[in-house]
Amino acid sequence: MAVLLLKDPEEDDCGQDPYIRELGLYGLEATLIPVLSFEFLSLPSFSEKLSHPEGYGGLIFTSPRAVEAVELCLEKDNKTKVWRKSLKEKWNAKSVYVVGNATASLVNKIEKLAECICSRESSALPLLFPCGTLKREILLKMLKDRGIPAAPGYRPQQDPE
């Protein structure tokens, strides 16, 4: 039997999408169909923020796209040398928070992340938070309620195709 999965492909430790692998174990043939197009907005503004780590207490990554945005900023603006020379060291001296694989409930992960950040941060500087609109509001509200400043770094655009 054929199954259509409306999602972007992901690779697990075996180099295969976990849904395709799992469905295959039950004799089902799965095909992945991406349902969204994606475009980064505000990368120049985000790139400028990345160039000034002294203005932030750390970074928050809640998706692989946030990491991709950093990579794009470094490549696009030819900042790879500057990154290696000074920026990387300056950012590495700061707190960096990362949400793991997107398998558990997103809200639960964000709540745990907010609790972790709030228990460790006391800086007056905001945390740079490259994120999409779905995750941004939940985490920013939780941090704000606990007195931790965070500054969204870029705004992605997602449109149904």
UniProtKB/TrEMBL annotation:
Q: Which reaction does it catalyse?
A: hydroxymethylbilane = uroporphyrinogen III + H2O
- The entry's protein name is Uroporphyrinogen-III synthase
Domain Tetrapyrrole biosynthesis uroporphyrinogen III synthase intervals: 19-149
Q: Which family does it belong to?
A: Belongs to the uroporphyrinogen-III synthase family.
What CDD domains does its record include?
HemD (cd06578)
Q: Does the keyword Lyase apply?
A: yes
Recorded hits in InterPro entries, A to Z, give: 4pyrrol_syn_uPrphyn_synt_sf, 4pyrrol_synth_uPrphyn_synth, UROS/Hem4
Q: Which Gene Ontology terms of cellular component type are present?
A: cytosol
Alphabetized, the UniProt keywords read: Heme biosynthesis, Lyase, Porphyrin biosynthesis
Pathway assignment reads: Porphyrin-containing compound metabolism; protoporphyrin-IX biosynthesis; coproporphyrinogen-III from 5-aminolevulinate: step 3/4
Q: State the function annotated in the UniProt record.
A: Catalyzes cyclization of the linear tetrapyrrole, hydroxymethylbilane, to the macrocyclic uroporphyrinogen III, the branch point for the various sub-pathways leading to the wide diversity of porphyrins. Porphyrins act as cofactors for a multitude of enzymes that perform a variety of processes within the cell such as methionine synthesis (vitamin B12) or oxygen transport (heme).
- Cite the GO molecular-function annotations of the record: uroporphyrinogen-III synthase activity
Task: For this entry, list what GO says about its biological process.
Answer: heme B biosynthetic process; protoporphyrinogen IX biosynthetic process; uroporphyrinogen III biosynthetic process
E.C. no: 4.2.1.75
